[in-house]
Amino acid sequence: AHVAESGGGVVQPGGSLRLSCAASGFPFSTYAMTWYRQAPGKERELVARIGSDGDNIFYRDSVTGRFTVSRDNAKNMVYLQMNSLKFEDTAVYYCYAGGQPWGRGTQVTVSS
């Protein structure tokens, strides 16, 4: 089983990024998928979750209205569209399928 995140980078405040997560080696379409992030010196925190069928979507309060999670079960992909980025969004972002191995994450840096 494997997940691989991509799409991170350096962006100015107010900018946008789209993160992608490619999954393999497990029945992706049966798993809820969760995006987490971890900033330096802080604990990993849940950012967004999407149910196996694309329903049951949840966002942490601080990203509601700015981030959008989606998935394509035909491609074993999950996405996180991030708009209106803020300094405090700077972190390593991970996608996670419960019980499966963590990926390496992708770095998002919001900097002027």
Helix/strand layout:
Layout (H helix, E strand, L loop, with lengths): L1 E5 L2 E3 L5 E8 L8 E6 L6 E6 L7 E2 L7 E6 L4 E6 L8 E7 L8 E5 L2
Parallel strand pairs: 2-10
Antiparallel strand pairs: 1-3, 3-8, 4-5, 4-9, 5-6, 7-8, 9-10
Strand order of the largest sheet: 2-10-9-4-5-6
Q: Note the beta-strand portion.
A: over 45%
Large-scale geometry:
globular
- Number of helices, counting only DSSP H or I runs of 4 residues or more: 0
- Helicity range of the residues? under 10%
Task: Label the structural class.
Answer: mainly beta
Average of pLDDT? 97
> What are the segments in which pLDDT stays under 50 over at least 5 consecutive residues?
none
Largest sheet: 6 strands, mixed
What would you report as the Rg, rounded to the nearest angstrom? 13 Å
The total count of strands amounts to 10
Distance between the termini: 37 Å
What letter string, H or E per element, gives the SSE order?
A: EEEEEEEEEE
Briefly say what this structure is.
The protein is mostly beta strands and 112 residues long.
